[in-house]
Specification:
- It is built from six helices and 13 strands.
- It is of the alpha+beta class.
- The strands form three sheets. Strands 1, 2, 3, 4, 5 and 6 form a six-stranded antiparallel sheet that branches. A four-stranded antiparallel sheet has the order 7-10-11-13.
- A hairpin with a 4-residue loop joins strand 4 and strand 5.
């Protein structure tokens, strides 16, 4: 079926039933060539998995359960493009989630450069096999959240960049737009429901900016508190001619391609993601 996106607001204490009709998507199959080896696909998949999940302990603890739905294509500009005929199913034993991921776009340079991907993920919690595993999930989720891009953007939205524990090399590189400027730019972009225009704040990022997070976190679980030291170094730079980006109060970028990430934020990929409503201790 064709993808359909709809914003739904559910107020606390209310019930809402939504019915949507999806349009069938006709899939034209290419000519199939039967060969004795799929070594090329295996090499592409190994490259895709490393770039998609990341190169970390959490990536090692994550498994793509249905890799056979992925197709690969080499582009003219030296990139590997990937698509999936069905949502990818990823089990993450490091964070305690199973993810159902609709892969919208994936392109990554095979020549040592960077790349990008766009996904729509849905999270379900896994059942822990022991109390120790459940505790490790609480700690690992907190370690991923604190100092993350989402944590930073939530602080930015709330005008808390001067608060500890984030250190910004040159805070003046990030300039907030006025409410009027933000609404003007969002109307220019189009595609945003009128009732949601006020959910976003706009910023201008003048140049690459170094951001450091070096602060301990205290994770509580069943009466015990664990101290975790977190040290993350990242860089963010504009990826548009206008140098603008927009975020909501949950720390989500309206356009994920509006900035380019380096350092820890660039290395932490799908195996490090958390649900939008995650908060440490919740």
């Amino acid at each position: 079926y064709h993808r359909k996106i709809k914003n739904i607001e559910i107020k606390t204490g209310s019930n809402l039933r939504v019915s949507e009709e999806l349009k069938p998507q006709v899939v034209e199959l290419n000519q199939v060539e039967v060969v004795s080896s799929n070594k090329e696909w295996q090499n592409d998949y190994a490259f895709f998995k490393k770039q998609f999940l990341g190169d970390s302990d959490f990536a090692d603890l994550s498994t793509i359960e249905n890799p056979w739905v992925i197709d690969f294509e080499d582009t003219d500009n030296g990139k590997l493009a990937a698509s999936a005929s069905e949502p990818l199913i990823v089990e993450n034993r490091g964070l305690g989630y199973i993810l159902y991921i609709e892969l919208v776009n994936f392109e990554w340079s095979t020549r040592g450069g960077g790349g990008s991907y766009l996904i729509y993920p849905r999270y379900e919690s896994l059942e822990p096999e022991s109390a120790a595993e459940e505790k490790s999930w609480h700690i690992n989720r907190a370690k991923n959240y604190y100092g993350s891009l989402r944590h930073f953007l939530k602080n930015l939205f709330r005008n808390r960049l001067d608060d500890k524990p984030f250190y910004i090399d040159k805070v003046r590189n990030i300039e907030p737009l006025t409410k009027g400027q933000t609404l003007f730019r969002l109307r220019q972009m189009g595609g945003i429901p009128r009732g949601r225009l006020g959910d976003y704040k706009g910023y201008r990022l003048y140049r690459e900016t170094d951001i450091t997070y070096n602060y301990p976190a205290f994770v509580a679980f069943q009466g015990d508190t664990t101290k975790v030291l977190i040290n993350k170094n990242a860089q963010i730079e504009p990826n548009t001619n206008s140098e603008l980006f927009f975020i909501d109060r949950k720390g989500n970028l309206l356009d994920p391609t509006s900035v380019t990430l380096f350092g820890t934020w660039a290395k932490n990929r799908v195996a490090h993601t958390l649900p939008d409503d995650y908060l440490p201790g919740n």
